[in-house]
Amino acid sequence: MGAATDGVNGFKLAKASSVATFAIESAGSASTFAIVASASGVQILNVSDPHSLVALGAATDGVDGFDVLNGANGVSVFSINGSTYAAVSSYLDNGVQIIDLSNPSVPVAVGAATNGANGFTKLTGASSVATFVMGASTFAIATSFEDNGFQIIDVSDPENPLAMGMATDGVDGFSMLSGANGVAVFAIGTSIFAIVASYDSKVKQDYGVQVINVTDPQNPVAVGAASDGVDGFNALEGASVSK
Length: 243
Prior knowledge:
Blueprint: E1 18-26, E2 29-38, E3 41-46, E4 54-60, E5 72-80, E6 83-90, E7 95-100, E8 108-114, E9 126-134, E10 137-144, E11 149-154, E12 162-168, E13 180-188, E14 191-198, E15 208-213, E16 221-227
């Protein structure tokens, strides 16, 4: 069907690494969009006609208040009070940038979380991000490749993200977080879980995935893990982002 290429028809997609989609309704009809994380920012596309993709807004690290987009490599979309936002993980800026996407032609920087500031301790080399809802609050979970763990962030107020729980490989039962680099979230009954992919070439036993109960975002709990070459798992070497 359609395609978009960096440098053609207004697209900024150099080293595109992650994508998420969202819909916005206006005047009784809905349009579908994609947001793509690339080397130093994000590009928004209108994909309502999959045969003809259209470049809309873009954001670049260091411009217009976007301070945490260098090495952007993961993106997740969420909604609060009718507005649409994205959380973007930044490997080189060691954090997560929150972006208001309500007008896809003009993305707006609204908040950010950076490792070492305001209680955030597990965002060095932030490598992937997913979002989830618990009750009236919305959270993001970001993996940290360099810190061998993850950080949970309360993004209910997108302008003021708050540090919540975190975990480190080898502590409190977490055994498969070395080189954490991908994350997805799922629900079973009333509980919310995250599954984190781990790939550390120096610690080869951490080729695998860690399952985490994040129902209490302040106190994530390790509940299971799978390692390449163990218990019938034979295709987890180099485990990476899965969405």
